[in-house]
Amino acid sequence: MTALKALLRRWSVLGRLAELPAPMRLIVLGQLAFNTGFYLVLPFFALHLTRDLGLGATLVGLLLGLRTFSQQGLFFLGGALADRFGTRPVALTGFVVRIAGFVLLALADGLPLLVAGTVATGFAAALFSPAVESELARRAGELERAGGPAGPTRSEAFAMFGVAGEVGVVVGPVLGSVLLAVDFAVTSLAAAGVFVVVLVAFARVMPREPAAHAGEPLLGGWGRVLRNPAFLAFTAAYSTWLLSYNQLYLALPVELERVGSAGVLGALFVLSAVIVVLGQIPLAELVRRRLGTRALPLGFGVLAASFLATAVLIALEVPGPVPAVVFVVLLTLGQMTVVPVAQDAVGRLAGERRLGAHFGVLASAGGLAVLGGSSLLGALLDVDARPALPWAVTALLPLASAVVMGVLVRRVPALRAPVPTPERTSS
Fold it and tell me: Gene3D superfamilies of this UniProt entry (predicted)?
């Protein structure tokens, strides 16, 4: 029985979560709330715009583009603000802005309020996301450097962060579909309510601490980033991860529509989330013990394989949604391998300084990659006669990242893979 309890504690999210100090535990659980509140609304936003408000496709596309730009494109600003003014005030401001954005969307019956609400919900994440990620990186790094046989490493803490987010991705749309039967305004106000709870929790639990770089110039963090060629190369290579992941929203629906299986799209999203929830913690433990940073080129190789395998299956005319299922499974495994290790590596490459600026630039670079790459891939997806082509072309991008990551892991001291350590025991 003791051995069984130890096994469950080691592999379960809740068991590992209990080992975190309260502020880190709040950040992980906060990620669950962030995604629950966000996905209460996002999957149904376009439907509300077209069905309830009668907007055309052009305006809908403009509003969705504004949301993406105001969030992903401005992460670099939120990260710099977190360094200068501190995680707590910037995150709390972001929560207030997100609440205001959802309230505006609930009240909006015309374009001005829709634009204001859309921009506010996006910019809010640009404030709180790099703030909480850099705070988790800082605290987890300090905990790991303090030593001791027990407690999660920084990469394992980010693995828990990812699992919590995936639970929110599943829970949010389920609750949203129920509330949408009442009214979209109710859904938006419920999402605002989730962030009110988050706001109160962070205000009570997150300690008041001086900003890591208070009194220093706001632009100092960006200057430090630009003077770090290893981090810039890492950022460029890592940006293909977000572009690859974004094909769940672009290429995957097109492929399912092509084979007449559009109805399974939701099930595939659930499949991806279940794989992360059940497998992320044990995989992170395995990576820590066996691979270290060598998991980065391996993970990008798996991402490339997800697109290449899909292209081959499409070219062989394998029927039904089989290529799509293979894509989702391999893409998710690549995600689980890459993301926790990469987020840990950001702190090391940054020298544990200006973490907000580094996380912000990392996220904004991914947004730019999605903006440019998805336009190209969208044009390739329109070529109906060669459905395997966009998948084969996309495979080249994470494959190039795998090569770059392999070089960085070998040559950059901060990324050099450590010798695997014996398995730790819990105290």
Answer: MFS general substrate transporter like domains
